[in-house]
């Protein structure tokens, strides 16, 4: 005998048992812990549960619950004594000089996809140090579930260089280095050694996704490795792609072309500047104007106010990534508050990536809705507790007329009849909301990074380009159908994510062949080939 129970329970049945146990748990964190246990003991069962119930289970393994799990990561940590696939790999400052040997401790040898964080900016929750491991684990779970990347080929990494989070430093259970963050040369050396060791061990086509680094490192690291290694920064580039997709798709509701929008961002960090740069690139690609010209219709607000030429002239040293957006603003125009900026700049789209909740106030949303028939209101900060406003607020304050998207999921909103204004839509809009139900789309990079990764891995691409992000955005936008738009969503349902990922992957792989970065011979039928490489949790003893 096998020593296993005698009845051979099919995976589907096991998975429905997991789901019913999950529903019995009293908190989301309990659900997270329960699922982590299953991931450790029965990978196929874990993925079957996630793949078949993505809308219900994703908010547990990913945002918002993963944020809470990171904050409690040291308390709930029960991983085995040696690194395992489901618990990831910690590369510490003390490993400088021997990072390759640390990679050798990982059970999988055929690694194709890595998500790495240094834990400094975990969602909108700030520095979580080594507890940030929840993020690479969660992101890679989505690679496997949403794009069929083989779980045997993924590697979650935390680069532990210390933390400035005092609560962690004081916590006796904290699993990370108990010191302040390394900011000097050793930091750069450690990242460099990791990138080189990955290439050496797993090859030039092993994909590295940089995730949730603080912005003083994120932009630098991306610039340093983008042209020489197979990598991208998900917060800068993946986010940009998904948001651009939502804006393109929103034309189906608003009738407004991408090039005719005026954008105002709350937040001028990785997500803000990443999105702004890709929008400008897309407008330039569509209209033939220069990227700098396109940037003139984009304004950013940071923690000190509107990013502008006046701030540079006053001697303020603005971060490098903000400089392309230091536009001249009429000096007597009020810009002290977000509401002032909305009045002065008259944006058609308001995009929140500040991690500061409740900043899209009733006045701000009402002003957007006074100015435009269907303003875009994207509250993209994660987790839910950091969202600039809720779906319900955005819809109610705009009389149901705004196009809303959020970083973390919000439930559908049913507007009371008297709260729906009849003046929605513009004469160009091919589609207008007709019902009082809104299903807000999730403007989260999870819609694109799995598909991009699948395309890169399947073609053996050795680089990830900004064009890949543009292509992924356009592909995703096409997958948003009128059945989605009629509920107010600018994204397809998450239940179709594997199909969406396959399409994104095919487009990205095609681009790798065009750009000459692919290393796998081009198959005759690219899409069916990529589909044939996708992992399906099938179980079996
Ligand atoms: N939906 C999605 O897919 C994604 C969502 N995000 C979310 O976006 C948020 C920001 O992430 P990221 O850009 O990487 O973080 P960064 O730290 O790089 O940037 C944060 C930005 O917000 C600004 N900011 C801080 N406080 C205020 C304030 N009171 N008013 C206006 N602006 C303020 C900061 O200003 P300053 O520059 O002056 O410090 C900075 O420009 C997070 O919550 C994250 O979860 C991120 C990636 C993907
Ligand atoms: C979604 C994501 O990557 C973030 O909030 O950081
Ligand atoms: Mg992130």
UniProtKB/TrEMBL annotation:
Q: Which UniProt keywords apply?
A: Metal-binding, Oxidoreductase, Signal
What cofactor does this chain's UniProt record say it requires?
Mg(2+); Mn(2+)
| Entry keyword Metal-binding | yes
Q: Does the keyword Ribosomal protein apply?
A: no
Residues noted as binding a divalent metal cation in the record, renumbered to the chain: 211-212, 235
Provide the Malic enzyme NAD-binding domain boundaries: 236-513
GO molecular function annotations of the record: malate dehydrogenase (decarboxylating) (NADP+) activity; metal ion binding; NAD binding
Q: Which domain of life is it from?
A: Eukaryota
One Pfam family of this chain: Malic_M
Provide the residue positions that the database annotates as binding (S)-malate: 121, 382, 444
Tell me the ranges covered by the Malic enzyme N-terminal domain, including all copies. Answer: 39-226
Q: Which PROSITE patterns match?
A: MALIC_ENZYMES (PS00331)
Q: Please give the biological process terms from Gene Ontology that the record holds.
A: malate metabolic process
| Active site (catalytic residues) | 62 (proton donor), 139 (proton acceptor)
Cofactor: binding comment: Divalent metal cations. Prefers magnesium or manganese.
Family statement drawn from the similarity comment of this UniProt entry: Belongs to the malic enzymes family.
Write the protein's name.
Malic enzyme
What is the native source organism of this protein? Triparma strigata
> Which lineage?
Eukaryota, Sar, Stramenopiles, Ochrophyta, Bolidophyceae
């Amino acid at each position: 005998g096998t020593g296993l129970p005698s009845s051979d329970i099919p995976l589907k049945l096991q998975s429905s048992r997991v789901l019913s146990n999950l529903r019995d748990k009293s908190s989301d964190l309990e659900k997270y812990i329960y699922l982590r246990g299953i991931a450790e003991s029965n990978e196929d069962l874990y993925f079957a549960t996630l793949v078949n119930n993505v809308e219900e289970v994703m908010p547990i393994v990913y945002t918002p619950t993963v944020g809470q799990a990171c904050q409690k990561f040291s308390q709930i940590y029960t991983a085995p004594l040696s690194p395992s696939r489901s618990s990831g790999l910690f590369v510490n400052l003390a490993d400088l000089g021997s990072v390759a040997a640390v990679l050798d401790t990982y059970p999988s040898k055929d690694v194709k996809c890595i998500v790495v964080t240094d834990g400094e900016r975990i969602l909108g929750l700030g520095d979580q140090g080594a507890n940030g491991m929840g993020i690479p684990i969660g992101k890679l779970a989505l690679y496997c579930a949403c794009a069929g990347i083989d779980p045997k080929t993924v590697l979650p990494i935390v680069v532990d260089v210390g933390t400035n989070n005092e609560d962690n430093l004081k916590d006796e259970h904290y699993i990370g280095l108990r010191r302040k963050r390394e900011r000097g040369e050793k930091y750069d050396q450690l990242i460099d050694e990791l990138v080189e060791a990955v290439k050496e061990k797993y090859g030039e086509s092993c994909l590295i996704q940089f995730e949730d680094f603080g912005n003083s490192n994120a932009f630098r690291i991306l610039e340093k490795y983008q042209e020489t290694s197979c990598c991208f920064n998900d917060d800068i580039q993946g986010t940009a792609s998904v948001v651009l997709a939502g804006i393109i798709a929103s034309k189906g509701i608003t009738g407004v072309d991408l090039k005719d929008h005026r954008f105002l961002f709350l937040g001028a960090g990785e997500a803000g500047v990443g999105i702004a740069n890709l929008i400008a690139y897309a407008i330039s690609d569509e209209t033939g104007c220069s990227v700098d010209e396109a940037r003139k219709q984009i304004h950013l607000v940071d923690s000190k106010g509107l990013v502008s030429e006046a701030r540079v002239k006053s001697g303020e040293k603005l971060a490098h990534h903000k400089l392309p957006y230091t536009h001249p603003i009429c000096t007597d125009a009020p810009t002290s508050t977000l509401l002032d900026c909305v009045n002065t700049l008259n944006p058609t789209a308001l995009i929140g990536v500040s991690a500061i909740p409740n900043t899209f106030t009733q006045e701000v949303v009402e002003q957007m809705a006074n100015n435009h028939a269907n303003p875009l209101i994207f509250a993209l900060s994660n987790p839910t507790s950091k969202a600039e406003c809720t779906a319900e607020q955005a819809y109610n304050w705009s009389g149901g007329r705004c196009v809303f998207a959020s970083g973390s999921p919000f439930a559908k909103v049913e507007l009371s009849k008297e709260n729906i204004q009849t003046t929605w839509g513009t004469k160009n809009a091919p589609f207008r909301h007709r019902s009082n139900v809104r299903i807000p789309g999730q403007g989260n990079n999870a819609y694109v990074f799995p598909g991009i990764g699948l395309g890169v891995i399947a073609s053996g691409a050795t680089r990830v380009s900004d064009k890949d992000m543009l292509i992924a955005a356009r592909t995703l936008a096409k997958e948003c159908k009128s059945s989605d738009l009629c509920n107010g969503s600018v994204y397809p349902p998450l239940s179709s994510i594997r199909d969406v990922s396959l399409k994104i992957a095919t487009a990205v792989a095609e681009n790798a062949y065009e750009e000459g970065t692919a290393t796998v011979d081009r198959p005759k039928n690219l899409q069916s080939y990529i589909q044939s490489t996708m992992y399906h949790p099938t179980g079996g003893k």
